[in-house]
């Protein structure tokens, strides 16, 4: 009878442990969905001194995080066709920098913000250029009504894909490390889904293109923050 009691208590403790773990996993994902900020990569250092585009972390993992972005005004270049990320971003940023320096229809000078967001539409063949669209986040002062210009256009981002999977890395972005980081993010998402990630089951990749975000100027060499972004349905 004593042995039966011990076994009964052992089974009860096992059930309680399973229920507790299940509750913790569910609460982690529920917390993010209901607005309690999940822990994640943390705020880039530059966002302590300049305005940055806001987002909410709904799920955090060591290799990636899932965010939700609210609709906001950005200034966008037209698509830039190039075989080089560096070339396209340099051309795009020159246009945007001219805009924020007052070359717009109001003559307004806008404070620098972060990140510089680049949509990348990969080439479909070995002899084809990729297409890049470079974006500047509009400061709060001008969010409702950004100054217009003939060279750029205001857009609302992120559009219909408000959720995003994000992987952060350092150094300078280039044509070699960006695809590597995208591939690593895809593998991490696949592995997480295989392990039963509840939040991930609710979302799938919504676009064939992807984005990168840079939080530093080209003249900052240390503690650089870059991100690759896959937009989710």
Structure description:
Helix content is 30%, strand content 25%. The protein contains 4 helices and 12 strands. The strands form 2 sheets. Strands 2, 3, 4, 5, 7, 8, 9, 10, 11 and 12 form a 10-stranded antiparallel beta sheet that branches. The chain is globular, with a radius of gyration of 22 Å. 27% of the residues are buried.
Strand content: 25-35%
Measured distance between first and last alpha carbons = 57 Å
What is the string of helix and strand elements? HEEEEEHEEEEEHHEE
Tell me the helix content. Answer: 25-40%
Structural class, please? Answer: alpha+beta
Question: Would you report the number of β strands?
Answer: 12
Q: Tell me about the largest β-sheet.
A: 10 strands, antiparallel
What is the CA-atom radius of gyration, in angstroms? 22 Å
Number of helices: 4
Task: Summarize model confidence as the mean pLDDT.
Answer: 86
What form results from the Cα inertia axes?
globular
Residue windows where pLDDT falls under 50 for at least 5 positions: 1-8, 10-36
